[in-house]
Amino acid sequence: MSKLPKKHQFIDLSDYGRPVARIIANSLKSTSFTPIDVTIAFVISGLVGIYCMIEGYYWAAAFFLIFKSILDAADGELARIKKTPSYTGRFLDSVSDIILNFIIFMTLWYVTEVSIWWTVLAFFGIQLQGTLYNYYYVILRNRFEGDTTSRIFEDSTPTALEGEKQKHVNTLYFIYKALYGIFDEIIYALDRNAPKGKPFPNWLMSLVSTFGLGFQLLIISLFLVLGLKEMIIPFFIAYSGMIFVFILIRKVFY
Description:
This protein is an all-alpha fold.
């Protein structure tokens, strides 16, 4: 099941794990496993990958980071298959992602000789990248009646959906805002009128999808297995400059 109607689907370069994620989700649809169980599984996979990075097992690290990305797609697939969307799952997914991202980059700092300040800058950059990608993607999903669990502007606590508790939504939303608020505000400030513009073309969304977490983890994994771990942080700092390029294209043409 897609987050967008077929007519508006684009080649999502960060979503390479979706076919396997669908297999996993379909295998779990008649079981007691919930989307949140799958979210917990991707956290475990990410932590195992981080451990492998510390120990220097870079092929294993690459496997578990990519598997984490696949499971990250599988939790949403399972929620759609079981028709159990929830804000609890949506915010838990996002909170887990940013915490794992921070640990991954601190681990890269630990296993390389890159400055801690460059590392923090790279982490800040990848979060802005991901925020822009999610911002544009959610605009499309809301405009074309796709999945609407995510909102364009997360500026108020949502009302719990059937099957979840409001106190869980409240707690996770508070944590989400504390961790993501600054990135959301920066992207909104840079392109606040995006929801009012023309529909984004598929080619632009495909380019912006290189900012997706799945693609970021793929790049990290490739650099690790190629023995280029020292280049990961400089790469993401440099690639963050494309944020301004994509926003400029959107403003000028769409």
